UniProtKB/TrEMBL annotation:
Subcellular location as annotated: Golgi apparatus membrane
GO MF: carbohydrate binding; metal ion binding; polypeptide N-acetylgalactosaminyltransferase activity
Protein name: Polypeptide N-acetylgalactosaminyltransferase
One Pfam family of this chain: Glycos_transf_2
UniProt xrefs under SUPFAM superfamilies: Nucleotide-diphospho-sugar transferases, Ricin B-like lectins
Annotated organism of origin: Trachymyrmex cornetzi
Gene Ontology terms: biological process: protein O-linked glycosylation
InterPro entries: GalNAc-T, Glyco_trans_2-like, Nucleotide-diphossugar_trans, Ricin_B-like_lectins, Ricin_B_lectin
Transmembrane segments: 20-36
Cofactor(s) this protein requires: Mn(2+)
Domain Ricin B lectin: 497-628
Length: 633
């Protein structure tokens, strides 16, 4: 072979080697892509199966249409769905106090009801994740659901010491890292026919996530439960807990109020901490509560109440910047803080803040102060209204109610109650609220009775002389003082406010509060007209303040865009009161015009669909309104 052939051969070999390397790289990349696609498909199939099961679980657990089932899946399949576009958690748990279904347990024997089916799996529900029930168990799951009105099968799969996320803000961790001496507390938990798993998960969450040196004891108060497993088995179980725990029992059904009194009278701790029997405490929950009470014995403090879903037992962090109040029917409500209060809280997000009322299920207060203040009204029956009664009494008699944003406790929220109410739900709830109004609300009691005939029917059956004597003994302030000083943003009528209907002159129709609910459970929607109802109805009653805010029940206000945000004829809405200028109006009695102050445009009714807009002021009939007063007391 000539010398000239060698370089040529070497070049060919090099080309073939390069080609081989490129070919091998292509084969490797193709193999990797095929493997990755198979893996992705497998993961997607698994995720889709989980999503399918979760959606079906939601559907069968009481969401009897596709939209509701999909909402349930979106809400509980991914907890990030609870965050709005601004990144703010918008979920707020609601106690269901408006109505209670009668207990119906179809095709379930007494043996099944009394059977403890607790059979935990090691990692079910870990870190607050949802539990998914296998489709083959759906029928049994539905049956068991009726016993406690939550997914008992899911609960019984979750260990008593399941892990939960640390939902505190980072500043909370440093804020409560090095505290001085805190008072010891007695934990009081009342239960009636509670599930074994939810009751003892509450107890274990207290023990596992509380400094032992702060726990004086745990007192379980049995309100005459009928379940066999809540008797000797429970007594034996609590004897072995690392914190002194005992069970007090009532031989008759006495209700939450009297049962809590039973526990409080037996408690030894300096502080009483009341919890419901279906809660889960998170890390760092106790220290913020005890610090508040330890600094001032007249301060009553509640945690932020997170949500344990009744279908999947997923744990969702609740919105912190809200406070407790109540509507015209005296039903407890969570309301958003308005602009002024949000501004105050912005640089102070970890400190406790005042609230007009508390939900009542979970709170701490000094034991001596509890009894000095009059404990609970022991003439109130079973459950309902005791939270408002204690809230009014605390504020009007020298104390305060607060929320500690660094304390988070999960609460299982149900859509209906499984409990029986001896004597009937209506008489008990309205009777309790009648007592609250008669003792603490002064002239606003007449407002409540005027629009709540069920409560008015029971007002004269209430013996309140001893509670009125307590109010006098404690030298308590008036309800007017409470509204002016504790809750100046309130939407109740007063002597210096307009209260009544807003009637459109041209159509003789009235503005009505929307029935649809917004992000926080408050009414929200377009402002519209509706035929005026002859008998005054709360849905057509509005208040106009001296500052020009037109508001109604549930703390919602007439709202319109400001000039730089508006279209030619922007629609007017009724939405959560914000304290912003866009909710300011001015009424001219001469021209009968309602002026939107920031835009300098007038409130006008449309002729086609009865919706309201703001438009350039013309003083024509479409823009004329009568503020028709309605006596409120």
């Amino acid at each position: 072979m000539s010398s000239r052939m060698w370089p040529r051969l070497i070049r060919r070999l090099r080309q073939r080697r390069t080609t081989l390397i490129v070919f091998l790289i292509i084969i490797f990349v193709c193999q990797f892509l095929l493997w990755y696609r198979r893996k992705e498909k497998s993961v997607n199939l698994e995720n889709n199966f989980i999503r399918y099961k979760l959606a079906i679980t939601c559907y069968l657990n009481g969401f009897k249409n596709v939209d509701s089932a999909c909402f349930c899946y979106r809400s509980h399949g991914n907890q990030k769905d609870y965050i709005d576009q601004r990144g703010i958690h918008v979920v707020v748990g609601h106690y269901i106090g408006d109505s209670v279904d009668s207990l119906k347990i179809p095709n379930i024997t007494k043996d099944v009801i009394n059977q403890n089916l607790f059979n935990p799996l090691p990692f079910e529900g870990k870190n607050g994740e949802p539990v998914v029930i296998h489709p083959k168990d759906f029928y049994k799951m539905q049956q068991l659901y009726q016993i406690n009105r939550f997914n008992l099968m899911a609960s019984d799969k979750i260990p008593l010491n399941r892990s939960l996320p640390d939902v505190r803000k980072k500043k909370c961790i440093s804020r409560y890292a090095n505290l001085g001496n805190l008072p010891k507390t007695s934990i009081i938990i009342v239960f009636h026919n509670e599930a074994w798993s939810t009751l003892l998960r509450t107890v274990h969450s207290v023990i596992n996530r509380s400094p032992k040196e702060l726990l004086e004891e745990i007192i379980l108060v049995d309100d005459n439960s009928e379940r066999e497993f809540l008797k000797n088995s429970l007594d034996d179980y609590v004897k072995n807990l690392s914190v002194p725990t005992r069970v007090l029992r009532s031989n008759e059904r006495i209700g939450l109020i009297k049962a809590r009194l039973l526990g409080a009278n037996d408690a030894k701790g300096e502080v009483l901490t009341f919890l419901d029997a279906h809660c889960e405490c998170t890390i760092g929950w106790l220290e913020p509560l005890l610090e508040v009470v330890g600094k001032n014995a007249t301060r009553i403090v509640a945690p932020v109440i997170d949500i344990i879903n009744d279908n999947t037992f997923s744990y969702t962090r609740s919105f912190e910047l809200h406070w407790g109040a109540f509507n015209w029917d005296l039903h407890f409500r969570w309301l958003t803080l308005n602009g002024r209060l949000l501004k105050e809280r912005r640089d102070n997000i970890v400190e406790p803040f005042r609230t007009p009322a508390m939900a009542g299920g979970l709170f701490s207060m000094n034991r001596d102060y509890f009894f000095k203040l009059g404990s609970y009204d022991d003439q109130m029956r079973i459950w309902g209204g005791e939270n408002l009664e204690l809230s009014f009494r605390a504020w009007q008699c020298g104390g305060s109610i607060e929320i500690a944003p660094c304390s988070h406790v999960g609460h299982l929220f149900r859509k209906s109650s499984p409990y029986t109410f001896p004597g009937g739900v209506g008489d008990i709830l309205y009777g309790n609220l009648a007592r609250v109004a008669l003792v603490w609300m002064d002239q606003w009691a007449e407002f409540y009775f005027k629009f709540n005939p069920e409560a008015a029917r029971l007002r004269y059956k209430q013996q309140v002389r001893s509670r009125l004597a307590l109010r006098e003994k404690l030298q308590c302030k008036s309800f007017e003082w409470y509204l002016e000083n504790v809750w100046p943003e309130h939407f109740f009528p007063t002597d210096d406010r307009f209260f009544g209907r807003i009637v459109h002159v041209g159509t003789k129709k009235c503005i009505i509060r929307p029935a649809a609910k917004g992000s926080y459970g408050q009414p929200s929607g377009n402002a519209v007209l509706h035929s005026c109802i002859p008998r005054p109805m709360l849905s057509q009653m509005f208040v106009m303040t001296k500052n020009g805010v037109i508001m109604t029940d549930e703390s919602v206000c007439l709202d319109a865009p400001e000039r730089d945000m508006q279209q030619k004829t922007p629609k007017v809405k009724i939405m959560a009161c914000s304290g912003r200028e866009r909710q300011k109006w001015k009424y001219d009695e001469q021209t009968k015009v309602i002026l939107h102050v920031p835009s300098e445009m007038c409130l006008q009714a449309t002729t086609d669909d009865d919706t309201l807009i703001i438009a350039a002021c013309t003083k024509n009939l479409d823009q004329q309104w009568i503020l028709e007063p309605v006596p409120w007391k």
